[in-house]
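Take a specimen:
=====
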Amino acid sequence: MASDKSDSKPRGGTVVASPLVPNFTLRDYSAFFTAGALCATITHGAMTPLDVVKTRIQVDPELARHSLLSGGRKIIAAEGPKGLMTGFGPTAVGYLVQGGGKFAGYEFWKKKFVEIAGSQEVAVQYRTAIYLGAASVGEFFADILLTPLEATRIRLVSDRTYATGLVTGFTRLAREGGLRDMYAGFLPILCKQIPYAIGQFTVNEFCHELANRSMTEETRANLSGVSKFSISLGSGIIAGFAAAILSHPADTLLSQINKGHGPGGPMASRLYTLAKEAGFKGLFAGLGPRMVMTAGLVSGQFLIYGGIKEALGAPPGIEIHKD
């Protein structure tokens, strides 16, 4: 937790104020990046089969009315079990760099915004804005790294004949479409990933705050490992549900854009046309499977992130919860 600005101690007759926030070093940020990279690539890689089914439900009319289970069975029947691992390469690599950038970015920008607030009291008062801002800015820069690999993944998943894997798919995309096609999905991916990050980080922060406020200081100080795990798991699951709901319409549009659907012209116009054609129901097609997947992703990421940070000796993040 960030120290209260009023904390001070005499040193040689001079009152020295405690810093508002800890001074994270380059080593600390490297640990944040490593922990974020590993937690994201492990969880997204493990969820590849669910993501394949979810994407097919969104872009394949024959699977649009199928559930996660029946859709998976249909894919296996047509393509074999390997069909469920389509796009694993770009998923693993994409979320390795995106996860590192997102988690380290959130820690960095949260610290910066707390410093801008100027005091612990003001930071606590405006903690929602700080969470939203840190999640959004951190995600923006992380998505610059993610977008070309996500475009490759969706092409591999939606068209089994596109390429044989990450290297051939990425090379074909770069050769045939260049930067324009590689970043064609940048706007919709921002529309997807920023609400996702907001749900992930902001809701998780408030879930932890509610849990802490329901306990006395003595209880919090003596929490068992199982209790801490349960709070982290429950907070992550709820945050995952929020992330899925907030980001799903843009996730559906992103799949359509990378599949090549929709008219030409400016991206905003294409998104509007596709959203109008899909309607409310179409924009939320596949939400159920994605909520299950995202709850597992987000809760798993926070648990792994915390474990790796601890193993690397990284400091805890800044806490601005209301007491």
